[in-house]
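From the methods appendix. Each design record in this collection lists the tokenized structure first, followed by the designed amino acid sequence. Records were kept in a plain field format so they could be parsed without special tools. The example shown here is representative of the layout used throughout.

RECORD:
FOLD TOKENS (159 positions):
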């Protein structure tokens, strides 16, 4: 008989009622390297970098999400295009958010909330450039947390 798993704890920022008020594109770089329709490896890699951006007040802050798309290939084929996107989300909350939780939000929750908008942007741009639609995978929250280095600190804080 397997033991029941303990219930998942809510995000530490959930009690602060943080809302995404605005999403805007900050920059788009898209350079065609191979003519659309050319054969290319579809092994897509992406590198995301969340960071804090702009003015922060007692009740709002911005999160910048940068995405660099790459293509890995064992056959050394040229990538079809070079692309980098940056998107910003303006978040509001009702009461002061402690600095450690703001950092957690900027690195974990913020990117998760912006990701659907980023996925749509990438799909739209690649399609408009004449390539098959590039639909990015969903974010792996465990990897995102591990990459940020905040997962262990949060576990310690909850003990």
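DESIGN:
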């Amino acid at each position: 008989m397997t033991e029941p798993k303990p219930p998942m704890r809510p995000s530490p920022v959930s009690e602060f009622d943080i809302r995404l008020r605005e999403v805007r594109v900050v920059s788009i770089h898209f350079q065609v390297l191979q003519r659309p329709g050319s054969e290319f490896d579809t092994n897509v890699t992406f590198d995301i970098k969340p960071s804090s951006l702009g003015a922060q007040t007692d009740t709002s802050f911005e999160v910048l999400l940068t995405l660099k798309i790459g293509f890995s290939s064992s056959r050394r084929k040229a990538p079809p295009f070079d692309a980098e996107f940056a998107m910003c989300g303006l978040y509001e909350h009702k009461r002061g958010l402690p600095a450690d939780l703001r950092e957690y939000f900027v690195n974990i929750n913020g990117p998760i909330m912006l990701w659907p908008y980023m996925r749509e942007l990438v799909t739209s741009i690649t399609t408009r450039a004449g390539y098959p639609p590039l639909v990015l995978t969903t974010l792996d929250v465990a990897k995102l947390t591990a990459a940020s280095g905040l997962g262990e600190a949060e576990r310690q804080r909850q003990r």
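APPENDIX NOTE: The radius of gyration is 19 Å.
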